[in-house]
Structure formats: C-alpha cells, structure tokens
Amino acid sequence: VNLNVTPFQKRPYIEITLTNAQNEEIATTSIVEPLSWNLELTMHIRGEHHSPYTLTARLYYPEGPTAEPVQYVLDVNPPQPDPRPDTP
Q: Other C-beta atoms within 10 Å of 21: how many?
C-alpha cells in the first residue's frame, strides 16, 4: 500500500482496513504520528481470495478533526503455479 498525505505541521493518525467481497475484515493497521507524508506498507491477505477487496484509509487527529475516509476497490489474483516442470 502506498499512501501519500499532504505535508503536515502536526502529525496525524491513520487507520487502514482491508475488507473482502463479503465485507469481512481481512487486515487492519494503525499508523500513529508518521514521520513522513509518503508511506509504504505491506498488508497480507491470508486464506482464500475473495475479490474484490476494499481498502479504506481514514486520517484523523485524536483531538479532531477527522478527514472523510478514502476507499479504493481492487481485485487480487491468486498466485499462479510455476509453469516449469519439477526437475530432480
């Protein structure tokens, strides 16, 4: 996940949630007072794949204000088997 926020004077909090097609929470993370406005992180999808997935990010300050959540819908394809034959 790549996340870019407007440069800030006071560091915000960010919550990111990944849900599957059944609206079940698959992964979540909280970022507390990031040092940079350009963030990159990995969220793992475990178990069976149920696309489409919805990634929701919410930026807020504990004392307020809160930005409207941003959503991004994506399809994730399961890994394909290696086409090379097994060699002894």
A: 13
Give the residue with greater pLDDT, 42 vs 6.
Answer: 42
pLDDT, position 19: 95
Ordered by where they begin, the domains of the chain are 2-74 (2.60.40.2550)
Contact 14, 3 (CB under 8 A): yes
SS3 labels along 27-74:
EEEEEECCCCCEEECCCCCCCCCCCCEEEEEEEECCCCCECCCEEEEE
Average pLDDT, the chain: 88
pTM for the whole thing? 0.78
Name beta bridge partners: 16: 29, 57
Count the neighbouring beta carbons within 10 Å of the beta carbon of residue 14.
19
